[in-house]
Design a protein that fits this description.
Blueprint (H helix, E strand, L loop, with lengths): L6 E9 L2 E10 L2 E9 L5 H21 L20 E5 L2 E6 L1 H5 L5 H16 L1
Antiparallel strand pairs: 1-2, 2-3, 4-5
């Protein structure tokens, strides 16, 4: 098994009177991925949770790369980057596609769940 070293950097800055947290994933000097969160009004503990979630999500993405993986997800952010997402309701396949395809279905079940989950997160933050 080959191991690669990924460096994680955190940076906070102000933009349009909002506090922003940037999380950068680097291999050497190459930026692999970065994530931005509006952390205006979040406690230090909530900011730490965001950092940990971003690190875990990146690790999951790396593990799933170039593999066939079946995931049952409570948090839809876990499967957002999947090639295919199957939405099953009461044992029936009701929707199939990637995140963007499913989000484009008007009145779709995935879209409704995704929007509900992230609106709830915004309210809790």
């Amino acid at each position: 098994m080959t191991q690669i070293s990924i460096r994680i950097e955190y940076n906070t800055f102000e933009e349009d009177d909002e506090k922003i947290l940037e999380i950068r994933f680097l291999r050497g000097n190459v930026l692999l991925h970065n994530v931005f969160y509006n952390i205006d009004g979040l406690s230090e503990d909530e900011q730490d949770k965001l950092k940990a979630e971003a690190v875990v999500q990146k690790a999951i993405d790396n593990l799933m790369k170039d593999k066939t993986v079946f995931v049952i997800a409570h948090r839809l952010s876990t499967i957002r980057n999947a090639d295919k997402i199957a939405v099953i309701n009461e044992g029936e396949l009701v929707e199939l596609g990637n995140h963007n395809e499913l989000m484009s279905i008007e009145n779709g079940q995935y879209k409704a769940l995704y929007e509900m989950q992230f609106k709830k997160q915004e309210v809790n933050n």
